[in-house]
Design brief:
Pfam families: VanY (PF02557). This is D-alanyl-D-alanine carboxypeptidase. The strands form 3 sheets. Strands 5-6-8-7 form a 4-stranded antiparallel β-sheet. With 275 residues, the chain is an alpha+beta fold. Helix 4 packs across helix 5. The protein has 2 domains: 71 residues, no CATH class; 156 residues, Muramoyl-pentapeptide Carboxypeptidase, domain 2 (2-Layer Sandwich). It is built from 9 helices and 8 strands. The site of zinc ion has 4 residues, from strand 6.
Length: 275
Amino acid sequence: MTRRTVLRAVGVPLGVAALVAGVGAAAGLWGADPEPPPAVATVSWEGVLTAPTTAPTPADPTPEAPAPAPEPSAPAFDLTRHSTTDPTSPWVVVNKQHPVPAEHVPPDLVDVAPGVQLRADVAPDLAAMVEAAAPAGARLGVLSGYRSYRDQAATRAAIEARRGFEHAERYSARPGFSEHQTGLAVDLGSGTQPGCDLQSCFAQTAEGAWLAEHAWEFGFVVRYTEANTEVTGYAPEGWHLRWVGRDLAAYLHGAGVGSLEEAFGVPGGPVYAGG
Ligand SMILES: [Zn+2]
């Protein structure tokens, strides 16, 4: 006799029978016993069938199947799932101690705005974030994404020429040391206060404030903050977002981890590898 026929026999509708059987099977109540005992369904005064809450006692004294292993509690977040050194990895850590090979070009760049490219995986999360920010009064513009080694060299040289070496060291990576070369980093602008674009006052704009609170929901981290300057080696940049994917971003947010360096135990800081 099968469970289904037992339940039919007591007049239980088939859909409910399947549910009850599913509950029993999911709980591992019958183990490997080929002839499991019937589930004892109960009917409330309203006539609503409820699944049995205790394991049914086997009618015949067959040897007990080994008890199923207890369900593990919520597993710890696996921080080893992706490489932190492969420049194509979503979790690659690029900083002044960990450069990107000069010849590296991301494999799957797509256009996300006029003249701006990012990795294909980043584009939908960026679009969703820009769309979600608008009703909150944050008008995000997409200023800059992937930069080749050569572009970064030009950007850095321009900043150095305009603001001097010390300023450039704090705000602009030397070529080969920029996250922008991975195609996973994006600089966003303020539609409400464009005068604060790429400036420290960006953090106080509607866009900067919204990003600080919500970027993680879309798989991004504000890479350089007031709190992590020592470990990242960069002054705060509320506009520079790094995509790491929603699962890692949510983990970092929930655990209160302030930088990729701290999350993965990767050295960073203000000193360039090789001096
Ligand atoms: Zn940037």
